[in-house]
Amino acid sequence: MNDRVLVTGFKPFLGETINPSEVLLEEIRKDFAVSKNVDTLVLPVSFGKAFAVLEEQLNKKSYRYVFLLGQAGDRDKVCFERVGLNWIETQKPDEDGFTPQQGPIAAQEAPALFSRLPLSEWSDALRAQGLPVKVSLSAGGYVCNQVYFKALQKLQSETGAGVVFIHVPYLPEQVQNKAPGTPFLDLETQKKTLYSVLNRYVK
């Protein structure tokens, strides 16, 4: 396997006009243009389509590392998700207007899959640099977690690729009309944090 890296993000959803994960992909495309080993991919916020779009890309190219980015509006730190749960649980519809029933993603499969990447090591190193990061237990019960679980299931079993889901906070412009105290994190800090991880693996 080569050292090619894939970074994904999501389109805006639930009434938002931007998604910080998509904005970060735009920055990556500019700043890592000198590297031929980094690909980016924007996913729809759709239970029926998101993993299909990702899987199509994974079937085209072989990746050593896959970094899945998504927005978490209740977070004030960049969060490395340790576990992909084999479970869907949400009251929020996806971009297709579909709200799934609560239940497992894949019947008869493991209840959860763990990232094999050194998330605690990353977190310790980045916090020592003063960056706002933490390891979070799971990616929740929405589309992001469904994609994470399926990606772990496919890649860790088939190719041994390193996979992690990284949740990022709102950007400042997203909270202007939200309740006072809604957490956010500026783009430059989000970039610095993410790039500190990517630069470990981009050749």
What does this molecule look like?
With 203 residues, this protein is α/β, with parallel strands linked by helices. It has a single domain (5-201), classed as Aminopeptidase. Helix content is 32%, strand content 21%. The protein contains five helices and seven strands. Strands 1, 2, 3, 4, 5, 6 and 7 form a seven-stranded mixed β-sheet that branches. Helix 1 packs across helix 5 (187-201) and helix 2 runs parallel beside helix 4 (143-158). The chain is globular and about 40 Å long. The two termini are 14 Å apart. The relative contact order is 0.23. The model has no long low-confidence stretch (mean pLDDT 95).
Outline:
This protein is of the alpha/beta class and 203 residues long. It has a single domain (5-201), classed as Aminopeptidase (3-Layer(aba) Sandwich), CATH 3.40.630.20.
Biggest sheet overview: 7 strands, mixed
Number of strands: 7
Low-pLDDT residue spans: none
Helix content: 25-40%
In terms of topology, how is this protein built?
Layout: E1 5-10, H1 20-31, E2 38-43, H2 50-60, E3 65-71, E4 78-85, E5 112-114, H3 119-128, E6 133-138, H4 143-158, E7 162-168, H5 187-201
Parallel strand pairs: 1-2, 1-3, 3-7, 4-6
Antiparallel strand pairs: 4-5, 4-7
